[in-house]
Each structure stands twice: as C-alpha cells, then as structure tokens.
Amino acid sequence: MVQMFYYENKGRCCKKILRYNGYPNKVLLYPEEGWARSAASSYWTITPSWWSKSRCKVVEVAGTRRYKTTAKMLDNGRGSLYIVGSFKKNIPEPDFKLFLTSNVTISDFNMGYSMTGSLERGSKRDNSFQTTHFAVIKRRDFEKR
Prior knowledge:
This protein is mainly beta. Helix content is 14%, strand content 47%. A hairpin with a 4-residue loop joins strand 4 and strand 5 (80-86). The longest helix is centred in the first third of the chain and has 8 residues, at 2-9. The relative contact order is 0.21.
C-alpha cells in the first residue's frame, strides 16, 4: 500500500500533494554543511491562501521567534514548486527561495518524506543567494486511512 502511494505521487504536482497533506504543511529545515552562519533549529509552516492559488502564507518558527510573510508559489506542474518571498527587512538575509520537488528517491520516501528540496537565503538587491538548508515535508498518507 505504501509503495502504491510512492508511485502514484512521484512527479505529481506539488500543490496537489500540499492539498492532500492538509493545512498547514510543516517544512523541516536541516542546515547545509558549508553554511558559515550558526543555524538554529527551525521549521517553516506553509499555508496556501484561500483567495489566490499562487500565494501562500509562510511562518518561520525558531524557538520563540516567529516571522510571517506572504510568498508567491510557482509550480511547473511536473513535480517541482518554487516558493519565493521575503521577510521584513530588519533581519539579515530577508529574501528566500524555497525549492520543493515530489520526485523523491525511494530512500527519502522510506524515511517518510513526500517532498524534498532546498532553501536559499540572501538579498534580491545584491542578487546574492546561497543554499542554507535542506528542506523536507513528511508525508501523511498513514493518517488519512
């Protein structure tokens, strides 16, 4: 049954998988090895907005801090999704690009992930983005039954 879920959702439209998982979707962030700054354990929640199919609400949770923003979702329909936006400018590296794909490997699927990707933080003004985190969304296929 689990293998059927893997083959049915591999390469599927990411917005449909987000809708299947339910709202809000928790994005777990793991820091990259080569990132120079200290990375607190944080996660994001993504909630697609009810008033637009291409907008979503992003909340970054790190300890007791919460940063909220509205971002744009760009889905190519072939299994990859870009979420682009920016937080308030008073934090370092306010702009972000989150890339998620539903083309996960069988080992990632066995670890419980429905989507994997990467997070790039930086500044649009300087056009200096760097990959800071590895991002995953856990699947919830067992909860729906």
